[in-house]
Amino acid sequence: MEAVEVLSPEVGIQPACAAMGIPRATIYRHRKKEEGPQPEPPKRPAPPRALSLKERQGVLDELHSERFVDQAPPEVYAALLDEGQYLCSIRTMYRLLDGQKEVKERRDQLRHPSYQKPES
After folding, report:
1. Which of 13, 38, 39, 58 is 20 to 30 A away from residue 105, measured at CA?
2. What is the pTM of this model?
3. Helices and strands: H and E segment counts in the chain
4. Closest alpha carbon to 87 in 70, 64, 66, 103
5. How does pLDDT run along the chain (120 residues), one tens digit per residue?
6. Helices 73-82, 53-64: inter-axial angle, 10-degree rounding
């Protein structure tokens, strides 16, 4: 490793690694370890048009209401638009329901049995 570090300023990292038979990724990995732990990237701010907690709860309450409890978000969206009420997009309704673990795959998913390797 040290030989590559000494040689790399003169000939470059790629030729130095090729001459020593060391992958370049190994050099970069060791450099990263020497630098220490990297700081976490800053958290993304909430988009300015994101629904507030109160609005989210309002949408969930509407989706859970007696009237819409058995309907899919596109049906709820269309019914509310017919009444002149817009809460959020269909995709947002799905996101909110998914956050509550209320959306699942409707098709049967294939389950593969665990395979036992034959013994000789």
Report:
1. 58
2. 0.58
3. 6, 0
4. 64
5. 788 888 888 899 999 999 989 999 998 888 888 887 878 889 999 899 999 999 999 999 999 999 999 999 999 999 999 999 999 999 999 999 999 999 887 777 788 888 888 887
6. 100
